[in-house]
Amino acid sequence: MQTPVHLVIGAGPGLGAGIARRFAREGYFAVLTTRHQEQADDLAAQLTAGGCAAAGFAIDLLDAADVARAVTAVGERYGRIDVLHFNPSAWREKDPLQLTAAELLEDVMLGVGALLPAVQAARPFQRAGSRVLVTGSAAADKPWHRAASLGVQKAAVRNLVTSLDATLAPEGIRAVAVQINGLLAAQGPFSPPPIAEAMWRAVTRPDESWTPHVSYDG
């Protein structure tokens, strides 16, 4: 396949789909993954109806083997993964006195741990110039105590991106976490279109000015 592939891990109808549309404007083929195949197909159909080339795949982010399976299936079908976009996070409204250790570990698996098998499975289908893009959040620095696991996820995934970037850089592959310092909204500076533009700018920077973290402040 000559068309570059943008794989979204943990896509949704808002930000995930919006970022996929932005990349599609640059000629990327969008692959959208969700928990259920029907949901993924619906998202892909919405993009296709808007003139984007897209496909959907099911993925279970709480199962490392299934994450590897799904990413490998995408790579084998299209022959390449140019941008691996890791977008999920687990929302659980529990403070530290309510949150159990098992719940915290489950949320961290979805919002952080699943990135490892995704990148490992994508690596054979990447080449110099490929990118790993992660959706970050201000919760990494300013967690809300009533949803304690979210801040842990976002701080941890940002840290992991630093290690991923250092590991992949010698192969010409770079990783970046774009930290969104505001609440997502349907309109305005924290709506999908301007955030998607910031994501696009983050992955198209030259290596000479690369950093593994970018802040989006609206």
**Beta-strand residue fraction:** 15-25%
Which parts are unreliable, with pLDDT below 50 for 5 consecutive residues or more? Answer: none
How far apart the termini lie comes to 36 Å
* Backbone CA Rg: 16 Å
Encode the helix/strand succession as letters.
EHEHEHEHHEHEHE
The proportion of residues forming helix, as a percent range, comes to: 40-55%
Q: Write down how many β-strands occur, each being a DSSP E stretch of 2 or more residues.
A: 7
What topology, given as strand order, has the largest sheet? 3-2-1-4-5-6-7
Assign an overall shape.
globular
Question: What can be said about the biggest beta sheet?
Answer: 7 strands, parallel
CATH class: Alpha Beta
Q: Kindly identify the CATH topology.
A: Rossmann fold
CATH A-level architecture: 3-Layer(aba) Sandwich
* Average residue pLDDT: 97
CATH superfamily: NAD(P)-binding Rossmann-like Domain
Domains (count) = 1
GO molecular function, one term: oxidoreductase activity
Family: Belongs to the short-chain dehydrogenases/reductases (SDR) family.
Pfam families: adh_short (PF00106)
InterPro entries: NAD(P)-bd_dom_sf, SDR_fam
